[in-house]
Structures are given as C-alpha cells and as structure tokens.
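Contributing new records

If you add data, match the layout below exactly. Sequence lines come first and carry their own label; structure lines follow with theirs. Keep one chain per record. Anything else will be rejected by the validation script.
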Amino acid sequence: MTLQEQFNMMKGLLIPAKYRFATMKDLKVDTKLSRLPAGIQEQVLAKMRANQLNGYAFFAPAGFSKTTFSYALYERAIAANLIACGTSSAG
C-alpha cells in the first residue's frame, strides 16, 4: 500500500466526513461558517500554516472554528507521521 493510500485510509477512519474538507492547504477565511471575525481567522490561519506541527489549544464559544482548525492540524499531523514512518521503514 502506498503512503497516499495509507493516508487516505487513515483520514477516512479518523476524521469525520463533515471535517474532511479542512486541510492546511485549503482552509480559507469563512465568515458564513464561522463566527470568528475574518481578521482573527486570517491571523490564526497564518500562525497555523507557519507552525503546522506545533501544539495548539483553542478556547472560544461554539461556532468559532475550533474543531475545524483542530481537524486541519490533525490531518497535517497524520500526513507527517506517515511520511516519517514510511521513510524510516524504507531503509
């Protein structure tokens, strides 16, 4: 099984369908789906993209993109771990 196939399988098992759109690459400011002001969304996304494998804690009321942001970071962590495991086991 290729790394891409493993990634797709893991993503399908671990990330609810509702949040599979949330990737670091594709996540955009959206004031229709989030109550978080656009300027703050931009700041959070910029920080997350600059430090994708760091740990984060999000605190806000419901509807402020905490879960969406978390699943985007989780998706990135799954990919990074599969790449690291695939590289280390290839030798």
